[in-house]
Amino acid sequence: MRPLVPLALLLTLPLTAAADGLTNAYFLCDIFAKTGVSTECLASHGLSTVDVIINTSEAEARNVCSVMAKGMIDRKRSFGGWQLRIFAPEHAEEPLAVCLLK
Q1: Nearest of 101, 3, 13 to residue 50 by alpha carbon
Q2: Considering only Cβ atoms within 10 Å of each terminal Cβ, which end of the chain, N or C, has fewer?
Q3: How far is CA 13 from the centre of its chain?
């Protein structure tokens, strides 16, 4: 299991103008890919979800979920009620963590 320190890079990203939920979902997936935390991210407009697969523990998944949701608020990224769901590679049917993307 690799440490999730690269999420600190989120804090270095520039603030941007508001976009729609789907555009912001792709932005969020891009953060996961660029930091190397996960290359498996799926944004579903129909379900209003961003699903990410991370090899991590349940406690760390909850932490990542919280940090990312807050980071999106801080960057003025509005989702209108989407959910970020974090899954483990071996348990793709049940998320380790779920948090609201406001």
Answers
A1: 101
A2: N
A3: 14
List pLDDT tens digits, range 53-98.
Answer: 999 999 999 999 999 999 999 999 999 999 999 999 988 889 999 9
Instruction: Return the closest-CA partner of residue 61 out of 39, 79, 27, 38.
Output: 38
Alpha-carbon span 96 to 86, nearest angstrom:
6
The kind and range of the H/E element at 84 are: strand 82-87
DSSP-derived secondary structure for 44-83? ETTTTEEEEE-S--HHHHHHHHHHHHHHHHHTT---SSEE
Q: Which residues pair with 82 in a beta bridge?
A: 101
